[in-house]
Fold this sequence. Notes:
Layout: H1 2-23, H2 27-38, H3 51-71, H4 73-77, E1 88-90, E2 93-97, H5 102-108, E3 112-116, H6 122-131, E4 136-139, H7 146-156, E5 158-159, E6 162-163, E7 165-166, H8 171-179, E8 191-195, E9 206-210, E10 213-217, H9 220-227, E11 233-241, E12 244-251, H10 271-285
Parallel strand pairs: 2-12, 3-8, 3-11, 4-7, 4-8
Antiparallel strand pairs: 1-2, 5-6, 9-10, 11-12
Amino acid sequence: MIQFRQILAKIFAGAAYAVLDFAGWKKKTVEANLMHVSQGTWGRGVAGLEPRELYKKMLKNLTRHVGELLFCFDTYKNLPENCAAYPCERDGFIFDTAEKSKPVIEKMRRGGIFLTAHYGNYEASGAWLCALGVPLKASFIPLKPDALNRFVYEKVRCVRGRPYSINARTPREFFALLDGTAPDCNGQKQLFCLLADQDSRINSAMDGTFLGCPAKINPLPDFLLKHRPNTPVFFCWIEERGSRKTLHAVEAVAYQKLDSRLRENDSHSIVDGAYRNWLEERIQENPALWYGWTHRRFKSKNPEIYG
């Protein structure tokens, strides 16, 4: 049965890749983003990267990860809770937690803010953290139709009977999760998860920089930290090498680099600082694992680049 699901995942990935590549899905957006970034101060990070090569590699990675999500997601949900149980073998894969990540995972179990990105198998990292006993609550926009939304909430984003997605919309709801006072928290502070690598098009969006270009950034993480300044912030990603999958978890303080333009007492944006440093490092390691290339990331600042 396990092998059958893996075969289905590979068949799906191959078919989806062929269809999307033939249709040129998001190809112009990827090319526009790459051209824009190459002309900015981060151009060295994508120097020599051909648009067609990036597009094909990214599409193969994306369809492979979607195939895993559809057919092999339960593997991540059933991983051991105890970090001492790693590395372990499940369904033909070897799962491990990076040595330096183990104390960080212990801290994540006590709540905080988890900033993630459309990088690698980011959906699987949430399920894996839940399996590790982290009280994750991931912000999401409800899907349509309602039947699909219920299926994702109750079946896909649910580990050991506990749904980990939430449609929190007000400051009171956000703070209730961080404080452990939300109705389903049982007094336990939650790890509130947010995607923070997209173009923010709301009135309160903040000015920032991404990949060396001006960008609008999500103001929510900085708003939460303004009112809960002692809240720890974490980043997490899965490193894949063949059949081995390693979970990395770090605290934001590891990526906080003082900007020479700021005085010592000035405030620092978590999104435009540590988070950006972390994500740009990941993208430089493997540009084809960042699926944000398919988004109109710089539309708020430079809409003309998308035609």
